[in-house]
Structure formats: structure tokens, C-alpha cells
Amino acid sequence: MVNKRLTAPAGTPSDVEEIKEKSDYLRGTLKEVMLDQISAGIPDGDNRLMKFHGSYLQDDRDLRNERQKQKLEPAYQFMLRVRMPGGVATPAQWLVMDDLAEKYGNQTLKLTTRQTFQMHGILKWNMKQTMQEIHEALLDTIAACGDVNRNVMCNANPYQSDIHAEVYEWSKRLSDDLLPRTRAYHEIWLDEEKVAGSPEVEEVEPMYGPLYLPRKFKIGIAVPPSNDVDVFSQDLGFIAIIEDGVLKGFNVAIGGGMGMSHGDKETYPQLAKVIGFCKPEQIYDVAEKIIMIQRDYGNRSERKNARFKYTVDRLGLETVKVELESRLGWSLDEEKHYQFDHNGDRYGWLKGGNGKWHYTLFVEGGRVADNGDYKLKTGIREIAKVHNGEFRLTANQNLIIANVTSQKKKQITELIDHYGLTDGKHYSALRRSSLACVALPSCGLAMAEAERYLPVLIDKIEEIVDENGLRDEEITIRMTGCPNGCARHVLGEIAFIGKAPGKYNMYLGAGFDGSRLSKLYRENIGEEEILRELRLLLARYAKERHDGEHFGDYTIRAGIVQKVLDGRDFWS
């Protein structure tokens, strides 16, 4: 029974709600506007709907001013994101994505922080063919963006072979079962005929409803001791509980989210909180009912306050739990003990419990490209041609060449050596622990550089690291071009959030295991100030740290930043 005391916030629905309401279940006029050859762009209303189909319209901001001077429309292009639960792809699927990036994109692939492929630079008239070729590879882009549940993340470490395989199957089921039911995607991109007529075939979204969710919704599944998916950053997180090598179920955590707006105290990052435990076969029921709570009580007037974390805060954690259990018809058990010790990747060759090998390759910024003599994209393509296992995209933008037989291991090692690919071990631990969002030139929200600049900044920070004997000390560092949190910025022990061209807000103090947020340390600073601050901080850390003490923990113990307990303490 639904708790009648709960209400959604009052207010006029946002313009996006109106677009969804009038869209005929996400169709809009997309089919027609994509055929229009006059402009390389599409109207804003259709672009809002395009997100539900896994794509955004963008423009090349490096060219924006020059094109404006020439009185030309912006250099419009589309970003396309694949739905790929748990980040698992076959070598054949990798080769398709590689080929599509060459034919229709900007000749690169982006491995995202949600474990999937992203392509940039696709022109409007190539979109449908791209979508169809992705479909032929048994992939799709349905719900990879938009106000729905997005790509379900899952622990990527295959050396826990049996458990990983089991948990991965649950992530796939969640991804499939939580998809929108509309056939709009199939009609627009795959030429499926729209069925019209009788009530029996009338389209209904039983879980999402005609307006879908107030904002995006993210789910991640973590397998302790690894928190590589940053489970507390998710709207809904499941933490696998393993006893005697058997998956007993999942702790349930709700209300996480990284996004905020600069200077707006009504928006803030927040960690999810554990509310109980469920059996493996119960996770779909839990996820569905939580999504329905967000559907019914989320904020549809103010999109900046529409994520589930704000719904949880407004209603109260215990109230949401009571409502969840009312809809379930049963109660969650008490949470079970678990322990995380890191949220990063482990590089190089590892042997799994199934006797097969797994190689984790460092991919800086997740950008798969050939760059001068460094033929990363070509090298992985050649590996894909001979590999008969899997590729697993990690939540840290890296790539695992997984389930390699002993016979294939030698051949793949030779290809890695031939193309100069690296597991990252000759890089500093700081660089190996870095994340960056795309930012400029393609993201329309970016206020500053991220992916293109962070490697350059790390070059200079590495000099400080080396001076202080910290080259092998893992310190998570993250950079985003805006405060929306695509690279889970405030879960970095050192984090930079773009404020303006060349200017960043600097944050310190996150937990190395992803269980504590960073706190604002310096505002609106440039490279010179960043390096000055880090020169002082890292020197102190090298001299004053305790054995085994991580940098984020040190900054709190030393009083450099206050301990951050949750999102509401973020601005204190």
C-alpha cells in the first residue's frame, strides 16, 4: 500500500516534462527531423528526446567562434553512447565499434566512467546507419542517456571469476528488465513498423509511466573488497555479500549522486546510504520499486533538484525505506558486514580462478586513439582479431583483456609489446589513478578543460611526486570540466572541478575506498596556484604520514580539511 502522506514537490512542471508528455513515448518528430538535410542539427525538443535513444547533439567548441564569424551554423555532431551492462564486450563487438569510429566518428573511442563505449563526431546523416550497425553487433544505445535507468555498472575484476560471472548476470538482467518498453527506438532507427489500433497493443510504460523519471537514474553493483564502481555515487547501489565463496545477496544503498551547481547550496554531491540487505533474486523487485518511488515523488519542477538523492533527503531515509517495503510487501534484512579497500584497477596480468588470464591495460582518460608513435587503437584492434575471450571496460576508464587462455597469452603479450601498449606500471601511481571527463571541445556544459588538460597537469605534478619519493603512492586524482560529476569528481582524494577557462575549484580528502567525499579546499585557482598548493601538501604528506596512510585520510587527520560525513556537510 502506498503511503498517502508522501507528496511530490509542488510547482509548475519543467519544459522537459512537457516535451516528454507530448512525445508519444519518446518519438517526438525525431524520425522526420533526422531526414532534414538543411541543417546538421535538430530542434532542442527533439534533442531532449534523443538522449533516451543514447545520444546528444553537440558542436565542436574549438570551431564555434570562427564559424560564428563566418555566419555558419555550429559544427554540429552527435555523441553516441552504448548500453553495455558491466562493461563486457566480445572481440567482435570491439571491432565493430572500432570500425564505426573510423567510418562515422572522430576516429577515437571513449571508454566512459560507466563502463561503456562513447563515440563523438557522428554527423546527422550517418546516425541511423551507425545505430543499425551497432544493433547488428548485438548492442544498442537504448536508455544510455535520458531520464531513465542508465547503463548498469558491475565490478570488472575477473580474477574473482565465479562470483564476478554470477554478479555480472544480475547486472545484465537489471539492465534488460529496467528498459523502457516503448518501441520508439526500434521504429526510428531500425525501421520497425509502428503497430496501431486495438487497446491490446496500445503502448504502456508500466514502471516508468508516460513521463518517465524526473532525471537520470544510475545503478552500480560492487563486489568487495573492490569498490571500482564507486557504489556510493549511485542512485541505487548493490554491495555483494559473499560468505564461504557463495553470493548470499546484496546490501542495498540509496541516494548517491555526484552532480551539483557552483555556488548553489541547494545542490550538492551525496553518498548513498545502506538501508538493508536482500537476496540475489530480490534485486529486480527492489530496483523497480525504488525507481517507482522516484517516479512518483521526485521533483519535476526543478531539474537541478530532481535526482533521487534530493527525493531521499526531502522525504527522509527512513520514510523512503518504509515506502519501499510497503510496495515490496516484505522487509529488507539487516545489512551484512563488508569491507572495501580500494576503488581503483589492478594492472598487468592476473590469473583468475578459472585458470584463464586477464590483462588490465591503462588507458589515459579512457581515450582509445592512435597518437603519433603510440598506436593504442591499432594495437587493441589487432588484439581483438586474435582474442577469443572478452573485453571488459572498467569504471576507471581502463580496459581488461579478459579470459585469455595460456595458449593465447603469449600471442597477446607479443602484440602488447609490439605496439608499445602498457599496463601503466611505468607511469606514476598518481597517473594510473586518474579520471577525466570529456569536457572541451565537445561537451556543451564544460567550463574548462579536463581530458585534454589533466595529463599535462599530471606531467608537472609528477615532478613534485618524484621529489618527495611518492611515485609509487596511489592517490586518486580526478578532473571534470563542470560540476556535473561525470568523472565522479568529489570521490577523488585530489579533485579539480572546472569553473572557467584555466580555472578550477580544488577539493581534497576523499576516502581511498570511495566511502568519503572530498571537500572544497581552494576556489577558482589556475595551474600556478595548483602546483604551489600541491608542492606544500605532498611534501607534508611525505614527511608526516603514518604507515599505510592514504593521502585523503592524511589531509583530514592533519586538519587540512574537515571530515565530510555526507552531502549536507559538504558546504559547511
Q: Can you walk through the features of this model?
A:
- Strands 1-2-5-4-13 form a five-stranded antiparallel beta sheet.
- The chain has 17 helices and 22 strands.
- Residues 198-202 and 564-572 have low confidence and may be disordered.
- Helices cover 30% and strands 18% of the residues.
- Strand 11 (348-351) and strand 12 form a beta hairpin.
- It is globular and about 70 Å long.
Output the keywords.
globular; five-stranded antiparallel beta sheet; disordered C terminus; alpha+beta; 30% helix; single chain; 572 residues
Topology:
Elements: H1 15-21, H2 30-33, H3 44-50, E1 55-59, H4 64-69, E2 76-81, E3 88-89, H5 91-103, E4 109-111, E5 117-122, H6 127-136, E6 153-154, H7 161-177, H8 184-190, E7 219-222, E8 236-243, E9 246-254, E10 273-278, H9 283-297, H10 308-315, H11 317-328, E11 348-351, E12 357-361, E13 367-368, E14 370-371, E15 374-375, H12 376-386, E16 390-393, E17 399-404, H13 406-418, H14 429-432, E18 434-436, H15 454-467, E19 477-480, E20 494-500, E21 503-508, E22 519-525, H16 527-544, H17 551-557
Parallel strand pairs: 6-7, 7-8, 18-19, 19-20
Antiparallel strand pairs: 1-2, 2-5, 3-16, 4-5, 4-13, 8-9, 9-10, 11-12, 12-17, 14-15, 16-17, 20-21, 21-22
Helix pairs in contact: 5-12, 9-11, 12-13, 15-16
